[in-house]
Specification:
Length: 577
């Protein structure tokens, strides 16, 4: 079958989100054909180029989210009226309440986000698809979405009776910011990806994230009836909430409402939804996803590169703790350093290795702060008056002399620590499990689901509890060994590439087998031909024979030829024989 793989800021680019699991998925399903539809996030990402693509990738189409040239489309009077009506309705739905993030939501707990009512959901969908149809008819809406009329429509909605109090207080600069963000999020409406020779011809669309990444799939479903599969290993809605946490209240409320409505519409139209863990699943259910559509599929990770370490766990330094990940505030290395100060009181020989690169400018600043704190908490120590002092905390990066590979970084310690205050699916924890290491983690995101009783879990932002758990493992080698062996067995059972590929292969077949034939077949006189799609069109392979004429509506690629003509009825005399 032909799969339309929809990505945002990731595959097939060499940097970005979800590129590794997408590449493994495509390579692991060589019996299918993939068309990649990718939205890029920055010019730098585009300049870095693509990963090497396997032969089953038939084509790649890309579009930038970070910029959009004016399409030069000038709307006529009737088109301007259509645009004003649809955009005004969209803005009105956003201003009427809902979609605001509580502090709990910003921390990652889906406690206050409610799914919109059926009436609100229908109004949002009608406005969204109305804009999409107008963009298709006119050749794009980039200019219209940037126009003064869009800002004025947004302002009228904010000032209308019944609008949110925060929306009514929006000033012109805030309205301009919201209009610009909406224009960016709605850029996929102006793409030419939804015709019969593009997404209209695939057997199903697989969106690798929610939000803007899934929008082309929504439009392909709307225009051509293509079934949509949505996979979320992180929650895009939560990402938008966190990104707008410092924005003015009006901007935060309106953008939260838009992304909440878009998430609800995506879940409503999707044939199946595959969250990567129970934490993501709870978010999706809270935002309106039907439980019957949800199938948890854990991320697949490459286990072979950790096999050597996992099969020989006894080589670790019994006094060394290791932390591996991206250095950023959400990882809460400050609490880890304070916990290590407590650990050193009970275990003076203990050492802590922090292995990872900073995530952007914020990560660089945070790393500097951590280094300064480590120097303050642990002055360089020396065994004697003539020895050079040595700090028990080291900061390293993968590829350095002490940690040439990721597997060797995990191999250096006997206990792996995760100290995050915000976490989605903890990849570093799974890698430690592949290595057969005992772990101490904070109870955030999907940590408990991943660990499943094979490691110690403590509350976040609690250095004392973190220290006590680490000390208990440092002092009990037999317990470390038992937990490490159990963790490795669990990871090999649940989190390998093979289980991920097998799960998606079955889901693809299930979706296509339940999807109606989306094409019209005509006989020689131009009349619809009943029962023209033979049963074998649902089986991979090419089928030949006398051809009928097919009106392309995006049928399966292994049945793109017209189906075998039905055998004409025999004359009565022939039938009598």
């Amino acid at each position: 079958m032909r799969i339309g793989l929809l990505t945002e800021g990731g595959y097939p680019y060499v940097s970005g989100d979800a590129r590794l699991w997408c590449d493994r998925l495509v390579r692991g399903l060589g019996q299918h054909e993939f068309d990649i539809y990718a939205l890029s996030r920055s010019e730098r990402q585009e300049d870095e180029g693509w990963l090497e693509l396997p032969p089953q990738v038939a084509r790649v189409r890309t579009a930038p989210l970070w910029t959009a040239e004016d399409d030069g489309v000038t709307l006529g009077r009737r088109a301007r009226r259509r645009f004003a009506e649809c955009y005004q309705e969209l803005a009105a739905v956003l201003c009427e309440g809902g979609g605001q993030a509580s502090p709990e939501v910003a921390e990652g707990v889906p406690g206050e986000q409610e799914a919109p009512s059926a009436d609100v959901a229908d109004r949002f969908a009608n406005a969204l698809y109305g804009l999409a149809e107008l963009a298709r008819d006119e050749g794009g809406l980039v200019g219209a979405l940037r126009s003064e009329s869009a800002v004025r429509a947004l302002e009228r909605a904010c000032r209308a009776p019944g609008a949110l109090r925060t929306a009514r207080e929006a000033r012109v600069p805030e309205l301009l910011t919201v209009a610009a963000q909406l224009e960016r999020a709605l850029r996929p409406l102006s793409l030419d990806w939804y015709e019969d020779d593009a997404l209209g011809s695939v057997d199903l669309c697989h969106a690798t994230a929610g939000g803007t990444a899934a929008l082309p799939g929504l439009l392909a479903h709307h225009f051509a009836g293509v079934p949509l599969l949505v996979t979320e290993y992180g929650v895009q809605l939560r990402t938008h909430y966190l990104a707008s946490a410092d924005a003015p209240p009006a901007v935060r409320a309106l953008l939260a409402a838009f992304h909440g409505r878009l998430a609800a519409e995506t879940y409503r139209r999707a044939t199946l939804i595959t969250p990567g863990n129970s934490h993501t699943r709870r978010w999706q259910e809270r935002c309106g996803a039907d439980r019957a559509k949800l199938r948890t599929v854990h991320p697949g990770m490459e286990a072979t590169r950790f096999a050597e370490v996992g099969e020989a766990p006894e080589g670790a330094d019994p006094d060394t703790l290791v932390w591996v990940g991206r250095v950023e505030p959400a990882k809460d290395l400050i609490s880890l350093l304070h916990a290590f100060a407590e650990i050193r009181k009970d275990e003076p020989k203990a050492r802590l290795r922090i292995v990872g690169a900073p995530a952007g400018a914020e990560g660089e600043a945070y790393l500097g702060h951590c280094r300064a704190l480590a120097a303050q908490l642990f002055p360089d120590e020396a065994e004697g008056v003539h020895a050079v002092g040595d700090n028990p905390v080291s900061f390293e990066e993968i590829g350095g002399p002490d940690a040439p590979t990721l597997a060797e970084a995990y191999a250096a310690g006997t206990v792996i620590v995760l100290s995050s205050v915000v976490e989605g699916f903890p990849l570093s924890l799974v890698e430690a499990m592949f290595c057969g290491r005992a772990t101490v983690s904070t109870d955030v995101g999907a940590v408990v689901e991943v660990i499943g009783g094979t490691g110690l879990v403590v509350p976040p932002r609690n250095p004392r509890a973190l220290a006590e758990a680490c000390v208990s493992l440092l002092r009990d080698p037999e317990r470390r060994e038992r937990l490490g062996a159990a963790a490795r067995a669990r990871a090999l059972e649940l989190f390998t590439v093979e289980q991920n590929i097998t799960a998606f292969h079955g889901i693809y077949l299930e979706i296509v087998s339940h999807s109606p034939v989306r094409r019209v077949v005509l006989n020689e006189s131009g009349e619809p031909l009943p029962f023209a799609a033979p049963a074998e069109s649902h089986v991979p392979g090419r089928w030949t024979g006398p051809m009928a004429r097919v009106v392309a509506r995006g049928g399966p690629t292994w049945a793109t030829g017209t189906p075998v003509r039905a055998t004409p009825p025999l004359p009565a005399t022939e039938a009598a024989r």
